[in-house]
Amino acid sequence: MSENNGGSNIAFFLAGAGIGAILALLFAPKSGKETRDYIAQRAGESREKVAAKSQEYRRQAEGYVDKAKDVVNKQKDQLSAALEAGKQAYRAEKDKVS
Predict the structure, then answer these.
(1) What Rg do the C-alpha atoms of the chain give, in angstroms?
(2) Please, what is the Cα angle at 42 between 36 and 43, to 5 degrees?
(3) pTM over 0.70
(4) d(Cα 38, Cα 24) in Å, to the nearest integer?
(5) Which residues of 34-60 are buried (b: 16+ CB within 10 A; e: fewer)?
(6) Can you tell me the mean pLDDT for 17-42?
(7) What's the gap between Cα 34 and its chain centre?
(8) Tens digit of pLDDT for each residue in 36-53?
């Protein structure tokens, strides 16, 4: 079994738990209106939790993108400096020969 399936296994577990909870509520000895109200309340809470987590993950991703941009810019600056130093060394050697 692949180690990369941890996230999907958790998602399947949570989906199964949610479906089981809904089925348990539907067969519970409450009135239909009470059950529907409870399900609607829980769905709203879940929607809020998902929205909060997605915002958190978005902020994390934006942070990673910013860090990657910084690294790329540093590498670009280093490469430009090395290229310029190479050009200067080439010109110096060329002037020596001439």
Answers:
(1) 29
(2) 85
(3) no
(4) 12
(5) ebeeeeeeeeeeeeeeeeeeeeeeeee
(6) 80
(7) 37
(8) 888 889 888 988 998 999
